[in-house]
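Support case: heme C complex. Customer-provided input:
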Amino acid sequence: MQRINGSLCATALILLMGGLGGADTLSAKERSASAGIPPEKVAAYLYAVIKADRTVYTTEIVNRLQEKGIVMASEHWEQENALMLPAQFLHHSSKLVAESGSGIRYRLISLWPIYRRNAPTSDLERSALESLSKNPDWPVTGIVASGHKQYFQAIYPDLAISQVCIGCHNSHRLSPKRDFKLNDVMGGIAITIPLE
Ligand code: HEC
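Agent response - structure generated as follows:
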């Protein structure tokens, strides 16, 4: 009981400080707390959100509406009455994130890309994709440099979570691989975070 009271008092004090113009103290505290989160964890948090959005868009929007015959997904969705592809959804949202100035970047890559621009662009990305196709349980991570800046990069597996993934890639005229199966590692989600 003593302890609970103590922590309640401390909470009340912090709230009071906030109320009395101690907001600077609090935000300084928050800043140092966030600087303390290791980049591996930040990448894991980002991946959890990106993956959830990608899964919901693919299964609950694209798959569902296609199955009901309501609307199809098409690469040329802007010219047609169609949904954007799951890869385009990720690409468009990552562009907005890049424009926000946070320095965070993410993209889809693959050893069998429909477009060359989605091929790995470094040894780290290439070896990550090779090792993820054997063991998708852990991301592959490393430090990369661009100019004078250093970045933490984590590459997570991108799995064939739905029939629409493999149906489209196996039949796309530019796809170099045509025997993807459900749950295969089709590529990776490469997340890059600036290191201070
Ligand atoms: C209707 C067709 C279609 C569907 C459905 C689809 N893709 Fe793709 N995917 C594409 C196209 C086209 C690209 C290239 C997009 C670009 O770069 O503009 C692409 C890009 C990718 C890439 C990047 C490498 C590459 O091939 O260029 C990966 C990885 C990928 N898709 C995996 C998936 C997964 C996993 C799913 C299901 C969650 C999925 N795709 C669903 C057509 C599709």
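Confidence is low (pLDDT under 50) at residues 1-25.

Case will auto-close in a few days if no follow-up is received.
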